[in-house]
Amino acid sequence: MKTLWRHYKGSYFCYILTFFFYFMAMALFSSVLSVYLTDIGKSAAEMSFIISASGLFSFAMVPAVGYLNDLTRRPRLISGLLLLGVGLLGLVFALCRGIWALFLLDGLIMSFINSIMPISERMAGQSKYRYGVLRVWGTLGYAVGAQCAGLAVQYFPPMALFAGLLISCALTVLGFAGTEEKDPPAPSQSPRPQKPPLSSLVQNRHFLLYVLAACLFAGCSGVNMNLAPILLGRLGVATGMVGTVLFFSTLIEIPLILFSHKYMDKFSGKALMLTSFAIITVQFLFYGISTSPTVVVAVMVLLKAVASTLFQMITLKMVRNLLPSALTTTGLSVINSLNSVSTILLQNAGGLVTDRFGIQILYLCLAVLTGLGMLLALGLPAGNREKVFS
């Protein structure tokens, strides 16, 4: 058994388990949550209220977990406990019907899932394998999870979906247990360097500028993620086809992630930021102007996941270049937390705009906001000192 574990620890297979089943768990719970809540009798207003718990709870949970990880250096233990919580709370979620109970459980489950994201991103950036060949398994896991979630909601009782969530979480824990960082620091007799204070985040002007731009991007992208199925439905796309469109739009991420080492370290974060904002702005303009379902489906498949995936990798790159390495996970967690708040605010505002003016006017408004984000990105430095993806 010891020999088997020695071969397993640090192997590529343990990273496959980690990324595939972590993202599969995320998709199993979140990708069809709105459909699930509607099927159990919740109104649109109740559904929106329950889903909003994700951002509210993540605002506090994500940075707290990130700082705890930076402080203790125990990412596998922290992630394992969070994943165990996700799996068990998912089973409770399947049994609940009360609005406040579902609100509380959704907030806890999604904040636990979101808190693991900065840890997994840092792990991918510091492993002995290239970022792209690890993260691509997350894309496959999410696509498979979204497809399985749709089938489970349509053909099986609710407990089947959440039992699958528990199994995915357990396999992710097994994967995490075998991961290890590249070039661990050698023991030294010298005093351990003091961790930079959190105040250094506030004092870093370029980091604050990036956070503001990231909030605009994440908020608009989050609104798009939740409203894209509604847009397709209003254009006459059948409900069964919506899941297929989202499945293929996720698979488009694969070459972008797999070949990230070819371009992510070659170009500056500023150049990549501008590219990402340009892609999502063009996407929103098509959604706001076109009335052809064929055009919208084509744009959604080709561009929906490209901008968000690129931006996720850019966040890791920018944090590594703008902050001390000891604050990497904390910085990622702070950004994710503020992005959650931005998403909540824009989703609520987006609902009002949609009800009053229509969903296509909303997308034109989102295009204006992402255009503003592009202007903010122009003020970022063009430095490229850290190689994260090679």
Descriptive notes:
This protein has helices at residues 2-8, 12-30, 33-39, 44-51, 53-72, 75-95, 99-126, 131-155, 158-178, 199-203, 205-234, 239-251, 253-258, 260-263, 269-289, 293-322, 328-357, 359-377. It has 390 residues and is an all-alpha fold. The longest helix is centred in the middle third of the chain and has 30 residues, at 205-234. The model is unreliable at 183-190 (pLDDT under 50).
What is the element string, with H for helices and E for strands?
HHHHHHHHHHHHHHHHHH
Strand content: under 5%
What's the end-to-end separation, in Å? 34 Å
Q: How would you name the oligomeric state of the polypeptide chains in this document?
A: single chain
| Separate helix tally | 18
Helix percent reads: over 70%
The low-confidence runs, each spanning 5 or more residues with pLDDT under 50, are 183-190
